[in-house]
Structure formats: C-alpha cells, structure tokens
Amino acid sequence: MDKLIDDELLVAQFQAGRQNAFDELMKRYKSKIFSYLLRSVRNYEDAEDITIEVFFKAYRALEGWQPKAKFSTWLYKIASNLAIDYHRAKARNPVYALEDTEIPEAHLVATDLYSDPEKQLEEKERGIMIREAVDQLSPKQKAVFMLSRYEGLQLKEVAETLDMAEGTVKIHLHRAVKRLQTLLRPLWENNEI
Amino acid sequence: MPKCKKSEGQAIDYAAKLLPPAEEDPFEQHLKHCQDCTEAVEAYRAVLELTDEAQEELVLPELALQNIEMNVYKRLAATQQEQTLLTRIRAYFANLGSPFGWYKTAAVSSMAIALIIAAVFVGKPFQPQQTLQLTEAQSADARIEQYRQQGIQRNLEEALITQHLRNDAWETESQFYRMKEQAQGTNWTKVADKHLQNLQSGNPTLQ
Q1: A-to-B residue pairs, Cβ atoms closer than 8 angstroms
Q2: By C-alpha distance, which of A116, A120, A125, A32 is closest to A79?
Q3: Residues of chain B positioned with their CB less than 8 A from the CB of A177
C-alpha cells in the first residue's frame, strides 16, 4: 500500500471526527462497488442508487464499526445484501422487471471503429452469451463467482461477505464453474473459441 | 467433465488458481498421468478466461461516478434533518410527565392533533435546535456544496477542453448548459452565460 493509508486507519480517523477520511474511503471504493452492483443488477440507474445507499449505510454504521474483518469486505457485505434485496423486490414485482432497462451493449463492449464489423458483431454476441450465462447462475453461485473472480476477493473474504463457511463458498464456486461450462458449451461446439 | 471424479474440485481450484500450495505439487504430478483431469483443467481455465474477458469490458458511467459523493451527502443531509424533527417530537412526548394510563394517552393524542393542525396552519412548528445531529447535517451540507463547486469547475474545464482540443461546438455548448444548470444560484452561471454567448456568436475568444 502506498502511499495510501490503510482503510482501517481511515476508519479510525473518521471515528475520531475527521470527515475527510470518509471521503477518501468513498473515493477508493466507489468504482469497485459501482461495478460490482452493475454486474449484479445490470441496470445503470439502479446500480448508482444502490451504490449511494451502500455508502449512506456505511457512513451511519461506521461510528460503531469494529475491525473484525477488512473494511472492504464489510462494504461488499452491505452491497451484497442490498443487491439481494433488490433482486427479491424485482422477483416480487414482475411489472418492475418488465420495465427494467438493461445495460446497453455499447456500454459493455469496448468499440473499436477500425476493426472488422462482422467480427465486432460476433464478439458482441459472444459477450452477451457469456454475460447471460453468468446471469443464469443461482443467486449464491453468482455472488460467489463475482466476488471471487471479478472483485478479486479471497475465499475467506467471500465467506465473510456472504456469511458462509469457506467450504460452502468453494462448493458454490465449483458448481458455478461447472454450470458455466455447460452453458457455454455451444461456444466450443461451434468452434467460436 | 473429468471421469476421475476424485479430482474434479481440485481441477476447478487449479484452473482458478485457488488450490492450496500444499496440494499444488501433488496435483500437478497427478495431471501428468491423468488425461481426464488435464482436459478438465483446460476446459475450466477456458471458461474462466472467457467470463473474465467478457466482464473486463464493463465501462462505468463517469458522470454518475463523479456524483456519488455528493449524492451520498445529500441523502445523509435529508435523513439527518428528518431525524432531528422526529427526535424532537419523541423527546417532547417522552417528557409529557404523567405516568398514568389514559391521562397520558389522552394528552398525547390531543397534542398530536394540535401539532398536526399547527403544522398545517402555522407552518413548520419545529425549528431544529442546535444539536449534534444538526451540526452533522450542516457538515453534510457543506460537503454537498464543496462537491457541487468541484462539479461546476470540472464541467467548465471539460467544456473548455472540448472546445479547444476537440473543436466540438455542439458538445461544448451542451457542457456549458450542463455547467449552468449545476451552477444555479451562484456566480458561475454568469461565466457559463458569457461562454455560451461567445459560442453562439461564433466568437472563439473565451476567457
């Protein structure tokens, strides 16, 4: 770490009344939390709202926070719980689900104007298929897979974030990878990779 | 899918680089003799590379990210003000005095009705006191203003960069309008107006 003051030290500074410490924490984690939520809820506006809610909740709870786990793990835990609430609310309200606007592909796929358009289209379709496969995982498998693969959390941290035993995390991860292998089999069969 | 079931979990862990160091060497030895597991590791590794690549391309909306801090403080300020009001109402009723059954209930009910009427006809009956929570709210307000000022200046810089480096008049104008909207109630609106006037009159000489 740099340069940088430890997250936990910043928390201690915040608890001692230094407001800027919380700003620094937000600056450090807003992109990570936003991208994690965007992958989970797949809607820009909702991901933004939930990100704000994560930091709002963190601010209010930080006063009594004890460093039993890493600050980042705690933040992901708040985000993960809010994402679960979001998916539950969405499942309960099918009208809401119909109105949901997905992330435009242009935002997901880096566009290279000079590349072959046909190839670009193929890449785009492949990207959609892969992301849809990840979306088809069970909520727990998806949460474990995302935290472990995309957020770079250690299995122990994933376990703390999701309130699971480390062994359970591994089982979910194994199932997720096996399921993805099945779902993405057409890519192999069509020699697309 | 490996036929060698015993090592299936290990194959995934190995592909995902999650195998504990103590198990790594024995598993690599196993791979030398087990075609099923070797193929499985390759397949799992390919799946993980695919999914990693697909997600790496995710682009975050810059504007939304820039406003996260300000929106968090706005949310905090709004809640703290609500809480101050609620705290005062609760404190008022808690101090009503009489510990006896229906006298207290009647008094509370009457007061609640009176307060609602007062709120409707007189306006805001509860002016927040100078409490700790209010101080926090003021702090949140100060931060909102601070982030707003930063946002205005950032928009101004971006508009100038767009105009002078990218020479994109339409985008420049949009950015100045965005800046003006964000700067409502401050002197920055005059700055935005001046730039917009110059832009619309085709005068490239800007301050």
Answers
A1: 109
A2: A32
A3: 12, 15-16, 44, 47-48
Q: What is the DSSP secondary-structure string of A18-87?
A: -THHHHHHHHHHHHHHHHHHHHHH--HHHHHHHHHHHHHHHHHHHTT--TTS-HHHHHHHHHHHHHHHHH
Task: Decide: B154 and B66 in contact? Cβ < 8 Å.
Answer: yes
Shared domain for A83 and A156, answered yes or no, is no
If you measure CA to CA, which chain A residue comes closest to B142? A19
Q: Are residues A168 and A135 in the same domain?
A: yes
Whether residues B51 and A31 touch (CB distance < 8 A) is answered with no
Does residue A126 sit in the same domain as residue A95?
A: no
A122 and A98 fall within a common domain: no
Question: Whole-structure pTM over 0.80, yes or no?
Answer: no
**Mean pLDDT of the region A18-23:** 88
Number of structural domains, chain A? 2
Is the same domain home to A11 and A81?
yes
By the CB < 8 Å criterion, does A35 face chain B?
Answer: yes
Q: What is the pLDDT of residues B129-186, one digit of tens each?
A: 444 444 455 577 777 777 778 778 878 888 888 777 777 788 888 888 888 887 888 8
Q: pLDDT tens digit string along A118-134?
A: 777 777 788 888 888 98
- Nearest Cα residue in chain B from A180: B47
DSSP state letter for A104: P
- Only one residue has tokens 């890519």, namely A187
CB of A27 within 8 Å of any CB in chain B? yes
Residue B198 CB partners (closer than 8 Å, separation 6+): B204, B205, B206
Which residues in chain A have their CB less than 8 angstroms from residue B64's CB?
A: 34, 44, 48
How many other β-carbons are positioned within 10 Å of the β-carbon of residue B188? Answer: 19
Task: List the CATH number of the domain containing A87.
Answer: 1.10.1740.10
CB A173 within 8 A of CB A162: no
Q: How many CB atoms are closer than 10 A to CB A91?
A: 11
All residues of chain B having their beta carbon less than 8 Å from the beta carbon of residue A193 are 46, 50
Question: Predicted ipTM?
Answer: 0.76
DSSP class of residue A137 equals S
Q: How many CB atoms lie within 10 A of CB A23?
A: 18
